Amino acid sequence: MVDAQILAMGGGGFSMEPDNPLLDDYLLSLAPAGRKPRVCFVPTASGDSDGYSEKFLAAFGPDRAEATVLSLFNRTVTDLDAFVLEQDIIYVGGGNTANLLAVWRVHGLDVALTKAYREGVILAGISAGMNCWFEASVTDSFNSNGLAPLPDGLGLLPGSACPHYDGEPLRRGTYRALIQSGFPTGYAAEDGAALHFTNGDLTAVVTSRPQATAYKLTPGPTIPTEQPLPTTYLGTPE
Question: pLDDT tens-digit profile of 154-173?
């Protein structure tokens, strides 16, 4: 039996912290030892942005990994199941969560990723790439100036997710209000915090910033309970 693993990042990684590789290094450390990890970037949420993909390829150069990019807007991969199963890590970029899910379902990538997850391919991502693995999430997919609930994730992880919990001013208040009004309980991650799930259970919260953290949110009698989770800072303590 292999472990099914997901690393859900509230913010950080190569696109937000180009000079701080701690979260990406942690992700690479989860891959099988003995060879360079095969890491595939999926930039669907950004409309397959060329610039985003170029940043990924520069950050995951041949000294660190065997890096590839899976485009669906200009698709060249015929057999998605086989391609995804060849990877050690699938790294999903940020952008529009709702559009990401719709495009994945049209192409059948949702099914391919679910199969790969159960066979030990590590799934990871930032922002939309955090949201997509849960049953529900908070997203700006429908209004770049506002936030809305999205009860339409892949459901590989139970409950809901909220990235950028401290990085965008509306996130915390919106998520708290949703949780209190019956939205699925779930996890909020600040920028620089990543939640590591193994076989569906949260096994670690790691951070690239000393003060970054994550929270478990549940409804309370009048306001939601916001429980800070134990974290491990990946850098050298100051």
Answer: 999 999 999 999 999 899 99
Global pTM value: 0.96
Q: Chain centroid to CA 32: how far?
A: 20
- CB neighbour list of residue 147: distance below 8 Å, 6 or more residues apart: 138, 139, 140, 170, 171, 174
Bridge partners for 161 per DSSP = 137, 187
Distances 29 to 16, 32, 33, 122, 212 between C-alpha atoms, Å: 20, 8, 8, 11, 21
Pick the closest to residue 134 from 188, 91, 94, 178 (CA basis).
188
Q: How far apart are CA 115 and CA 211, in angstroms?
A: 36
Residue length of the chain: 238
Q: Are 67 and 39 in contact (CB under 8 A)?
A: yes
Residues 6 or more apart in contact with residue 146 via CB below 8 angstroms: 140, 170
- β-bridge pairing 225-228 and 214-218: antiparallel
Determine the Cα–Cα distance for residues 157 and 213; give it in Å rounded to an integer: 19
Pairing of strands 38-42, 89-92: parallel
Q: Are 199 and 172 in contact (CB under 8 A)?
A: no
Give the pairing type, strands 186-189 and 214-218.
antiparallel
Mean pLDDT across the stretch 31-38?
A: 94
Average of pLDDT values for 143-161? 94
Q: What is the number of helices (H) and of strands (E) in the chain?
A: 8, 14
Tell me, what amino acid is at 183? F
Strand partners, 40: 68, 90
Q: Which residues are catalytic?
A: 127, 164
pLDDT band of residue 1 (cuts 50, 70, 90) is: confident
